[in-house]
Amino acid sequence: MTKNSRAKVKADALDNATGLFLDTNKSPARNVNELDNRGSHFYLAMYWAQALAEQKKDASLAAKLKVVANELTNNEDKIVDERNAVQCVSMDVVGYYKSDFVKASAAMRPSETLNKIVSKVKIA
Predict the structure, then answer these.
(1) pTM (predicted TM-score)
(2) Mutual orientation of helices 112-119 and 76-84 as an angle, nearest 10°?
(3) Distance (Å, rounded) from C-alpha 92 to C-alpha 74?
(4) Cα torsion for 32, 77, 116, 66, to the nearest 10°?
(5) Do 49 and 68 contact (CB within 8 A), yes or no?
(6) CB-side exposure of 34: number of CA atoms within 13 Å?
(7) pLDDT digits (tens, 9 = 90+) for 57-79
(8) Residue range 87-108: average pLDDT?
(9) 31 φ/ψ angles, rounded to the nearest 5 degrees
(10) Do residues 20 and 29 lie in contact, with contact meaning Cβ atoms separated by under 8 Å?
(11) Farthest CA pair distance, the chain
């Protein structure tokens, strides 16, 4: 067991986010134009950022995540739309087991809005 208090705060927030994720049924759907794995991962990330921003045990961490959580929340519809727009589009990632990192990354990160928000996150 670690004595890293920040890790405990992050873990507790992730637990809260997972509960909200399940309560709001943001798991991947089976049909086109519904939430896929990429979309469900977005929701877990958004809920986790919200939980970290709202927690009271680490004010510094909460302050860092408040802006991120707000940006994710305010751009939720746009991010989901950007992700849904690439469903059923063939993507060449140069192989299944040994894919090209750049191509696979582009395929898995189709939302420019989300990419810009995530690129600003610097948390230890």
Answers:
(1) 0.86
(2) 130
(3) 32
(4) -130
(5) yes
(6) 8
(7) 999 999 999 999 999 999 999 99
(8) 85
(9) -105, 155
(10) no
(11) 46
